[in-house]
Design brief:
Chain lengths: 195, 962, 294
Amino acid sequence: MRKGLLINLDRCSGCDSCIVACKLENDLPLGHFYNKVIAVGPTGTFPNVEKYWLPSQCQQCENPACVHVCPTAASYRDPETGMVLIDKEKCIGCQYCIYACPYGVRQFNEDAGVVQKCTLCAQITADGDGVPACVHNCNCGARFFGDYDDPESDVSRELAKYPEEAIHTLPDPNDAKPLTRYILSPKFASWKELV
Amino acid sequence: MTKGTISRRGFMKAAAATGAALTAAGSIPLLETTDQAFAAGSVERVMHKTACHGCTNCCPVRVYTEDGRVVKIEGDPDGPLNKGGVCLKCLSQIQTVYSPRHVLHPMKRVGERGENRWEAISWEEAVDLAGEQIATAVKKYGPYSYWSARGGGGAYIEWETSGLDYTFGGCNSLASGACQCAMPRDFVSTTSVGFNCCVDMDNVDRWVGITDNAELDGTRRDDTERVFVLWGSQPHSSKAAHGGHGLTDARSNLGVKTIVVDPYMTAEATKADVWLPVRPGSDCALMLSWIHHIIENNLYDEAFVKHWTNLPFLINPETRLAYRAEEVWPDYVNPAADPAGVYDTPAYVCFDAKTNSVQPFPFTAPENCAVDPVIFATATVNGKGAKTAGQIYKEEAEPWTLEAAGETCWLDPERIREAVELYAKADFGGLSNGVFSDHQENSSTAPLGALAIDALLGYVESPCSAFQNHGAASRTADRPTQRLGVFSSTFERYGLGWTTGLTKAENDRLLDAIVADWDAKGRDGKEMQRYFFQSRCDTMGANEHKGIHQWQTCAPKELRQAITTGEPYRPRVMYEMSGNKYAVMGPSLEWKKAYDEQDFVIQQYPNMTSFTVQTVDLFLPTTEWLEYDSYEAPGTHFNRHYARCQVTHLGETVNPFVSPYQVAEAAVEKLGAENVFDPDAYKVPFFESLEAARAAWAEQMGKGSWQEMLDDIDHRFTEEPMDDYMAYYQYKEPVSDGLPRGFATMSRKVDVYSEAMLRLARTGFPYMYPFDQPACDDYDPICTFKEPTESPVEGQPGYDPEYPLVITTGRLPHFHHGTMRHAPFIREVMPAPELKINPETAAEYGIEHLDWVKITSRRGSSNARAYLTQGIAPGVLITERFWNPECFDETQESITPGIEECGYNIMSADEFQNPCFATNSYRAFTVKIEKTERPERIWIESEQFQPFMPTLSGEPVTEEVF
Amino acid sequence: MAIQWPLVLFSLLAGAGGAMLAFAGLSQLLGGSRTVRRRAVWCALALFVIGGLCSVAHLASPLNAISAVTNLLSFSGISIELMLLGASFIAGAAYLVLTREEGRDGAVRVVAVLAVIFGVAIGFFCGHGYVIDAQPTWNSETLPVAYLGTSLALGAFAYALVAAATKTPAGKAANGAATSAVELGGKLWPAVLVCAVMDAVGILAYGLFLGLDAVAAQGVLFWGGAVACGVVGVLACAIAGMTALAAKAPLPLAVAGVACAAIGGVALRMLMWACATGYIDLFSHGIPSVMLHL
Ligand SMILES: Nc1nc2c(c(=O)[nH]1)N[C@H]1C(S)=C(S)[C@@H](COP(=O)(O)OP(=O)(O)OC[C@H]3O[C@@H](n4cnc5c(=O)[nH]c(N)nc54)[C@H](O)[C@@H]3O)O[C@H]1N2
Ligand SMILES: Nc1nc2c(c(=O)[nH]1)N[C@H]1C(S)=C(S)[C@@H](COP(=O)(O)OP(=O)(O)OC[C@H]3O[C@@H](n4cnc5c(=O)[nH]c(N)nc54)[C@H](O)[C@@H]3O)O[C@H]1N2
Ligand code: SF4
Ligand code: SF4
Ligand code: SF4
Ligand code: SF4
Ligand code: SF4
Ligand SMILES: [Mo]
């Protein structure tokens, strides 16, 4: 099983609602985020410009650097679901995973002394039928959750609607195999590698 | 998760019982905590269903409580438009309902205005004080000394303020919206198409959610080309989870194409097939160029224009009104005349291509039409040269070639061509005219232009059209009729106003019956009718700007000046039923001078704002939407209209429809019913208690009781059957007189050439019938272009090199007007207003990304943070309205009301207005800018918002006060 | 990224301790004073302890160090550092135990060889943990080389300092210069020079890897701290050690060397944190989160 998010940027309006949905669901204090929505662009020169939004959170790498560097195995990839998670009990707050994550989507929680990141709303999704808060509440139905290995899952079905050239992953510096896919059709904007 | 209907029901019963007992005892409970169900409850999660009131759109939501405390809000996946999505405003209600800023008790000012010092008082005392102040002023200075103020779209209270106004005989109700929101578009659509589709014109939900070429699952049924035009309209912000979601579905699932006409690269523009970044304020020139291009290139729908619009009608050059057949042929017998004399279907005059002559043009089905009317023609009628309405439009549009429009609107002519051709050649199209035009001098002419474009292309009552009739009610059995000012029931109450589609005899009969009814009640009906007419004439600005009658409001500038000068009279006691006038109405600092002249200001609202701190004397706490029941809001979801259902209740907050009733009742008692104009008027829109309100709303929903409605938790809405909802081309369906239904307009066709504008200016028709209001200058009956009074174009009369930049505004998904500035999770992602500015312009002023900028217009200054972007033209600026509740937070060393720091409307103008609707200029005026420092007290870092984090979640759940 | 002071200090102190340990090992193998060696090893152990405490300060709670230790076999960067720290500490402690009395030469030689290996390795691996794809400005083997070089230079001068401060029991009258002269079979200063060169090479190599633009953005740190002190100062002191100055004023020379090497070592590590960008550092964008004009 490879459970993760799929975000359709053709649909995303950059409304920031998923940020708030996530914070409320996961009880994050001010200044703490599991996800952010980043405006990419506008690129070009007025009026010939393009722009899209990149909602960003843990990419659920299949070969996660954060797990490899973790000295306590607090960061782990659930072999059954493929979800990359942090066991807060085990985390010693050394922050090596923050340095090692190629996408900078982990944050150190000073108060708790542990590193935090998107949990795929494990408290909702663990039993197999819920969807994360950001997915459920996404203003424009741009976010999908499911098992990439299951052709009937929401993510697989949405992916199947789009051609290769519209499907993207964040660039992968060294075989981290980020699972999260982004859909962006060239007619709206060209995908930017961001590195 | 369990649906906790059982414990919910238990709660409602307990609540009802306690309420009854207290009423019987005649006491008003101060902070009565009760509730067995909640008190004894386990930590079971209970699911409730209600509808969000975070903005105009009322998205259905599921709310979860534990021990009566709201713990989670999420979208209701059953919502046909939002499909489970909700935006950050909705989600943040969990923070605002428990916000330290949510006021739970009536408050009386104890310090000076501006000091923010208050004393909590009981509702009994508050109602008595409010009644006393109103009564005293009315006694001493007469009925016009009382006035009311209300919100705009998304506010709880709009036209309902008239209920109190006419109790005392007052006549001024200031709306933050109305002149500045939808009222102009409502007038145009209601008089020209016969129904209010302003809601459609800016709420694209109806035509994007599930359009008819898709199954409900989003699968396309045909491959017709469908094109939406978003003209100064951005549903992704203004209808976030609603029309925004619908638009996404339309685009992504159905392949609908979009054209966006907007100075800023909005979310819509990023996805548009063509984006026309029009110069703010120049839209009418662009519209005329579309009209010109459509006519020149024969792209119009000839059959529709000929038979379903008034464009082929010959216009009398003296009266500027269309000739009636009887004017040319006195003995003419109109075949469409109603033998019973009830319905009115006039016959007009055209130039007939078949006979090459001027001929009568009666209303018929197109296939039965005896003439072949020429749309663009000049002919001699009664010895004078007369043009068709089409010809008049054509000549107006003549100078507006693509090149000319390109130059005036700062656009590439080729891109204009691309846009207009894409739209004109679509199989189906619809144009959403956003609120942009309601905020500038073109508020009457731009909607006329949008109407002309769609009428020329036949995009009326067709799939995708913004001019859409929905539901059983519009499928009338007879010739459709329309009473203007549906938001102004008082016209009807006192026997004033013409119903379009009825004959004069029938209109007179109806009005006489109303007068007779008053007589029967022991009042002098004629006198009441006359008083009402006179008071409408005495309404501030009513003579120049007769469009204000549409929503029974008043002209903002004229009211402001009357208060400051005392001429012609001074309104003195204000009942404000909205939030922060300083934030939403300009020019704010000029307004402050007026408010300072007030003897007493009452405000009802859920939380204190700049207006409260600066101006209010008595504050009445009203419910947040989680504490709120209602069915009143206009926002529908496709064919559904959701009810708001109370989930919790804190302190002594009162439903906003109940408090005005209590206040009015107290004032009437003090004045004596015999001394007020209409002692019952306030009982119409307002309610004595929540129970009374629930009963009325249940009735509107066709339910036996509110409880019955609540019990069916999955159906807390009313629903229009799909067959009626999706009934297109209703105008073609035959009705009782054997003719096609047509439209509820004077001509029974689409009045692209707006005679209504002319009649309104001349006599106040149709509102004032049977009286004539004194005439003012004619309002333009068609789209015309006028360079904005303050212009950024060198060489124009309004150009001033000191103010070289043009500025405008638009919405953000994050806030609804003045709301949510105290929602910490929203503020941390949008802490300050952003001034969108082209890097080239920024460089000229040495401004870098995120620098603070001071913006100054001729009326005042405001601050914002620079956001450098190539998504806007050089020389154009856009930012949003703001205010900063942190400025009067306890943690500050010194306080301000939080409006002067980031108050866009300090800069906006009312000295130049739209003539018809008195629309202020909130967009397209000119400014200068300079780099500055962050204003003191403004918070921008996440952690700073800690004082806004919820503190009331431990508050007990309480009973209703009334 | 914010400069992580505990890690800056840990890696430099532990690395320098390692270098001292290695010098002691070399002295054992090549010849020198037992007193100097024992004192140096005591110093190394002290540096390991202080460094270790610093690194614990980086953790959210000191108790968490235990979890790190109990998970040694994860072979993460941290666990390798921990293992080397432990191994070096044990080697040093064993050395002190074995050399309490004369004799046991065979065992001492083995420990000395291990001390050299672990002592050098710890300097390198304290830097190697940072060589990750996620941090392009760290992702170069020049980084651990620079960590090693700066550790060696600091440890070498510190060893020279110990030597200079120690009066040999052989000639009570002899001053520190005499003691130093026999250390490492008389090769103490050449060894220091070798370390100084490695330090210079490491710093310059990492600087080159970062590129002129990046280092220019951290001008004071790079040019002042790393180059002026870490490279020029350190080399000058080491070269001076090859002159008559070594005999005349070994103590001030060693002190100056320690100071330059310490500043250089700290500056290099600060530079590393200050230049950290992340591969795609999505959360580094403030509010509004925007990537402009790509
Ligand atoms: N510069 C500039 N100025 C503008 C505009 C612009 O675009 N630019 N837009 C204009 C327009 S279109 C409009 S409509 C006006 C809007 O102006 P207003 O309607 O005055 O603005 P709001 O802040 O929405 O005030 C209405 C209030 O009703 C309150 N309300 C909503 N739900 C509840 C509830 O459940 N209980 C209670 N008690 N109160 C509730 C909300 O808190 C809300 O703040 O602003 C106008 N002003
Ligand atoms: N989040 C949120 N939702 C809301 C509201 C809110 O305050 N916040 N308010 C509600 C209300 S009352 C209303 S009336 C609706 C309004 O909803 P919209 O009509 O969508 O309102 P805006 O976003 O203010 O304005 C639309 C667009 O006009 C553009 N614009 C500005 N000046 C010009 C111009 O001169 N010409 C053209 N062509 N475009 C221009 C702006 O860039 C903006 O994108 O939203 C409703 N929904
Ligand atoms: S909620 Fe959905 S539409 Fe809004 S920013 Fe997040 S992903 Fe995009
Ligand atoms: S994105 Fe970062 S945190 Fe998430 S799995 Fe990959 S390496 Fe780990
Ligand atoms: S901070 Fe926690 S999760 Fe991250 S590497 Fe260290 S122990 Fe593992
Ligand atoms: S899946 Fe859950 S934890 Fe992850 S970003 Fe979405 S809401 Fe936050
Ligand atoms: S769009 Fe409006 S009604 Fe819908 S969830 Fe957002 S705030 Fe609520
Ligand atoms: Mo509005």
